[in-house]
Fold this protein.
Amino acid sequence: MKNYKAIILGPQCSGKTTLKKYFQEHQALPLVEEDELFTELNNGEYPQDIEYKENVLRPKLEEKIRESENIIFLTSYCDRILLMELKEKGFKVIQLVLEMDEFQRRNTKRMSDEGYDDANTWAKEIFNFHQEVRDKGWVDLEVDATLPVEKIAEQILKFLD
């Protein structure tokens, strides 16, 4: 089996969880979502204390990613220094590209249908980060997040293989 070293960056509402579920049903890939790692590092509960999450758990999460030899990490944000370190270690950066109007539509639907919190809280910061990552040339593959999940998965697999 092939080892993977990749980060899939996508803002909230870009389909990261949907993509993970699709891959779990169709491919045996070493997928890990950021929230899952936070939960694992916090004894099975998602951390509610933001300071604890960022100051205590995030360094542990980042170390776990650094040490991984076979991982596809799905996240909305990655520390810039960590991102550069991972690229130097051979990680590929894949970005799910979502425009703000589609984000707003999906966010509204997710709040009403699934009871999610409003992702607008972090949207500007996250979208600025994603633009910066693109502008600096750190992205190895851009994928349109509005495509059907099957097409997104196909593009990612083709790129990684």
